[in-house]
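As described in the Methods, two query proteins were run sequentially through the folding procedure within a single session, without resetting any intermediate state between them. The first query and its resulting structure tokens are shown here.
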Amino acid sequence: MVASRDAEKVHADLPEALVIASPEEAIRHPDVDLVVIASPNATHAPLAKVALEAGKHVVVDKPFTLDMQEARELIALADKQQRLLSVFHNRRWDSDYLGVKQVIEQGLIGKVAHFESHIDRFRPEVRVRWREQNVPGSGLWFDIGPHLIDQALQLFGLPQTVQGNIATLRPNAEINDWAHVVLNYPSHKVILHCSMLVAGGASRFAVHGEKGSVVKANADRQERQLLAGVVPGSDVWGQDDDALVLFEGTNPPRTIATPNGDQRQYYMQVRDALNGERANPVPAVEALAVMAVLEAAVKSSETGQSQPLDLTRAEQASLG
């Protein structure tokens, strides 16, 4: 079942799908157990609230909500209703991230001192779409920032403070299209960067440690494969021929094969969680932590000062 005003478009991909124009009507349908909210950012919290109040399990696309207050209200409601509330942080199953994570966990570069993560694009022309208009929840930082933040938090946990510099660089742009954010930890730095004006030359990941460095030049291919018509789960799905490059002191650099990515794992794990076979793959409190970093970066950019995370002790404790 799909809630959409464009039934023809839905049926082009899902010819047997039941299409209902009203999302509220679809949410309340008695045959629905799980509601997936992949609508514009400003509608995430209102629709998730309707779904939870209707007794449905809920998956929300990133960013979880527009602000911390909305996120906390949804978490409390899900607890009250005893329903699964999960956030689609799908980049945990990207090939580039999995490869870098593997190198770090195996200790090949030693203790990390500097971690840099970029998701850059080259779109000098402003597009007429809500993500690039001055509406709540728009802008590159709320679009790409959640991916960058979630991966960093999975690797390193919560930072002590956040420094943000968020800007609008393209002519005629209405909302931010460039962000450079530093997560401050006691003994290392994490740099998160996204831009709409990078035609090339920036690596997806560059990580430097006490024993060496690892660089991943190109990004995971799953999104491009989908656009090219590759069927998820096919033999080539998630394959990444761009190897990691490992630098170890004075030794010649060597390559390490990049593991396959597979974002389908998220929904497989949601299915298993609903069947009581495993935990929620992305608990809402982890998405709350992402929201805390998003907000801290915005506040830092506005004030010019580094900011702590607005998380309670109980919330921090639940994150480990």
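Immediately afterward, the second query was submitted; its sequence and tokens are:
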Amino acid sequence: YAFNIGSIDTFQQQLQEFNKDYGVRYSFKRQDNWGREVLQWVLFLGIMIAIWMFVMRRIGGGGGPGGQIFNIGKSRAQVFEGGKSTNVTFNDVAGLDEAKEELQEIVDFLKNPKKYTDLGAKIPKGALLVGPPGTGKTLLAKAVAGEAQVPFFSLSGSDFVEMFVGVGASRVRDLFKQAKEKAPSIIFIDEIDAIGRARGRSVSMGANDERENTLNQLLTEMDGFGTNTGVILIGATNRADVLDRALMRPGRFDRQIYVDMPDLKERMAIFQVHLKPLKLDTSVDVEFLAKQTPGFSGADIANICNEAALIAARKKKKTIDR
């Protein structure tokens, strides 16, 4: 006969009292269910491991087979090379003639470095594109890579920022290592002010330690460039006033190229680029549109052209008119 009991200690105490009253002899053997104990520990450890793997995948930006648990310190740059190119040249960049002229020298160096090194010239290690949002800084950087036909590493300054200490510096090292292996190449960091802000301005002590470590590693890597490595860094920002002075000095960002809002002539050229794929009515006057949009950036003009196409489609028109 078998039955379940609640507490073993309580049952033994009651059994001893019963034995005193009635003098019943008894014997028992205590057995533990080790299988159940082991199963409970296995389930507990399995759940903890599953939670840990899920958290690490989310932190590493994974989600595929195996996630990126061990790749958290790897560079997140998008690489354009070989068959996967930027497909952008200076012909696709309307206006910005002064900026294109300055960047053309970088393209010439990447294509013909011997012409410069034979004369003992030191090629600029970096160029900083400064200007308001939407003026074409990213497009210019892609055009440089497209003209030079070299590997192009593109990422944002926020891609270096992470909650774990040392991850940003590790990603900087990995980025420059990849770029040197595929030299000649171009590294483009958009919104570089995310990691390039001046050091020592934090109100709360230690709040910016990780960002400053990342910046220090970036400065070290830029100093480590040789004159013939063939790696050029292009940065873009609309907040050059907050950048660290060590980042702006000659030998790191040798060139500072200001990309301003387009003037009338440049706005006409930008309109012609964005209106080219659209079906236009003969009444559309590009010069009139350019005169009506002072202070508009290239991105604003592109949006105007797209909105015109959407409105024409909404009104069921065959062409886009005034």
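The radius of gyration is 33 Å. We note this only descriptively and draw no conclusion about the first query from it.
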